[in-house]
Design a protein that fits this description.
Order of helices and strands: HHHH
Shape: elongated
Number of helices: 4
Largest sheet: none
Structural class: mainly alpha
Length: about 150
């Protein structure tokens, strides 16, 4: 994974958090719920950052989900605070992060295992055994017994 892309995503996550806090400070109502959402978002952003740093297989899908939920939260904040310029700036930040994340989902492929020769199997001697067919029993001749 490119270090520049990682740095850009980290920057976008920090800017997203700053925009969420700014929008929250201008909310007339629902600010307690929004503070809880911001705290959960900070925890989620920390998980995303660590997952991206260790190049986890699920990191980019998680980043995609994170930015899509951040956009939904941004719309909620805008519906209460009505800060147009900050809304547009934060929307650009989140959409940019979403696009980077969604385009990076397919690029994270697990590393192939190193090719090593299979462990040497002990040599086993085999024998060809021919089985002779057992002679068929002669057919019985005579009358069948009557059963009552």
């Amino acid at each position: 994974m490119g270090a520049i892309r990682l740095l850009i995503i980290y920057t976008l996550i920090v800017l997203n958090a700053a925009a969420a806090v700014y929008m929250e400070t201008h909310m007339a109502s629902w600010y307690r719920l929004e503070m809880l959402v911001i705290l959960v978002g900070l925890l989620a952003s920390l998980i995303v950052m660590i997952a991206l740093a260790v190049e986890a297989e699920w990191a980019w899908p998680l980043a995609t989900i994170f930015f899509s939920l951040a956009i939904a939260n941004l719309v909620f904040e805008f519906s209460i605070s009505r800060r147009y310029i900050m809304f547009l700036l934060a929307l650009v930040i989140n959409v940019f992060g979403f696009l980077i994340s969604i385009l990076s989902v397919g690029e994270c492929e697990p590393e192939p295992l190193p090719e090593s020769p299979p462990p040497a199997a002990p040599s086993v001697e085999t024998y060809e055994v021919k089985h002779e067919a057992a002679p068929e029993a002669p057919k019985k001749r005579g009358r069948k017994k009557k059963t009552v």
